[in-house]
Sequence to fold (297 residues):
Amino acid sequence: MSQESTHRVLISDSCSLLVKILSAPSSTSSPLLIATHGGPGISSHRESATSFAHLSSIFRVLVFDARGSGDSDLKPPFTHSRWVADIEELRSWASAEKFVLAGGSYGGVIALSYALAHPDRLLGLILRDTFAYGHGAVMNCLMQVLASKRISPDPVRQLRLWTGRTLSDEDFWEGCEEIVGMYAAKNDVEEKREEETGTEPPSVFHNATHNQVFGVEVEKYDVRARLGEIKVPTLVTVGRHDKICPVSCSEEIAHGISGARLKIFEESGHSPPTEEPEAFQACVQEFAEDLRRHSTH
Fold:
């Protein structure tokens, strides 16, 4: 049975981060896995926990709200380099010389950025439905949203959303809400999510974080030419029907990292952990156990 502890970790620039540690009892000596969530300004540690909490039997799983998201401080800068630095400080706080890093969607972008900045700190890398080239990914998203027959979004609002020009937290929420139906492979997955979350905009939507990322950071992000620098064991996962981060993005990453494993989930869209949970967990568990065995030798 996994146990959970909650912490407020003060980063060196006085930003307070909400952190949770998921682990088996008496597992203080277990290797560390840090999971970083996607959706800057939208998502939280709950996404990471859904994806990777099952690994708490063999790792200390650290999930957290990135600065500018969830219940962590809304303290800028909301930049890739600052989020990478925050992960490095969390590694130190957790007393781990090396660790496994996992990231889904935009969390995968930050995970790749960390892997390139601190290659000596990683035991392994787990990526889900992510991308290596920012401008291309955003243009694909906007094209898919406007061409989709499953949704009927406001084109002007979507242009604001994908170029980091949302007008307010409410405008940000409305832009996200009207496209949620295209994220999953099947409509019933998103209908179930809507039933669970309701229709009121949650307080964790922070458009300032989102605007900085999609208005500035994503346009500077292109690590395609550097993927070969990543030498640690890497698992790349993606849903076959992902319209947001399509299979081609994950194939590009897997081909660029020597020895990377690529797993495509045939019945999933953007979130295999919720669309094919058993298959996703089995795949990640197998990879994680291999890492654990290698790290103890």
Remarks:
- The CA atoms of residues 38 and 107 lie 4 Å apart.
- The first helix runs from residue 45 to 52.
- The first strand starts at residue 3 and ends at 10.
- The mean pLDDT is 92.
